[in-house]
Amino acid sequence: MAGNREFFNRRLHSLLGVIPVGLFLVQHLVVNHFATGGEESFNNAAHFMESLPFRIFLETFVIYLPLLFHAIYGLYIAFTAKNNTSRYGFFRNWMFMLQRVSGVITLVFVAWHVWETRVAAAFGSEVNFQMMENILSNPFMFWFYIIGVISAIFHFANGLWSFLVSWGITVSPRSQVISTYVTIGIFIVLSIVGVRALTAFI
After folding, report:
1. 20: cis peptide before it, omega within 30°?
2. Least crowded by CB within 10 Å, which of 22, 86, 103, 121?
3. Close Cβ partners of 193 (under 8 Å, ≥ 6 residues apart)
């Protein structure tokens, strides 16, 4: 019974990491990328997202609760996983270890980012270009965000590879090799989008 529960939790953890949390990450990166078009471009995009109907409901049940489960169960996986990189130094084993490390880094980053933006907004601050400009004007915070964003993107892209395997979508070795190249491509493209957005604020 316990084995069935763990199997279900791992499947749910994997699914939520892609849908909806992963899709939200992509959407968030795209909205932030509007900063490359200037302050007005970003503020318009951010205002559009803030004006969505049922925003509080959507944020709670489509973002925060799935993210909370994914984060809590992910920590359990991270600290109970047996990494064998010193004994088996092949590519996938390293990806396995980096998935756990990036998950912890991403959790710290997301918690801080939510505190600086969403919690601040709840107390009356406006989430706009100037807010992010003020945050990223600090060199330490800029590099903290760079590391956090790249870590989050890696965690999503590499997690997508695991999702495809665990859900029986890529079963053959050839399909797993192809998905490796696809997810690496996703990581590179989204990293460029994320870093460009951050540099646009400064």
Report:
1. yes
2. 86
3. 29, 30, 33
| Domain hosting residue 164, numbered range | 2-200
* Long-range pairs, 53-61, Cβ under 8 A, ≥24: none
Q: Is the pTM of this model over 0.90?
A: yes
What are the tokens at 127? Answer: 């989430």
Name the domain count of the chain. 1
Report pLDDT digits (tens) over 108-159.
999 999 999 988 888 888 889 999 999 999 999 999 999 999 999 999 999 9
**Which stretches within 19-64 are classed as H helix?**
21-33, 39-50, 55-58
| pLDDT tens-digit map of 154-191 | 999 999 999 999 999 999 999 999 999 999 999 999 99
Helical pair 129-136 and 139-166, crossing angle rounded to 10 deg: 110
Collect all residues with Cβ–Cβ distance below 8 Å to 97 and sequence separation of at least 6.
Answer: 83, 85
Among 68-72, 92-96, 178-182, which stretch is predicted with the lowest mean pLDDT? Answer: 92-96
Q: What CATH number is attached to the domain comprising 124? A: 1.20.1300.10
Crossing angle for the helix pair 2-18 and 139-166, to the nearest 10 degrees: 120
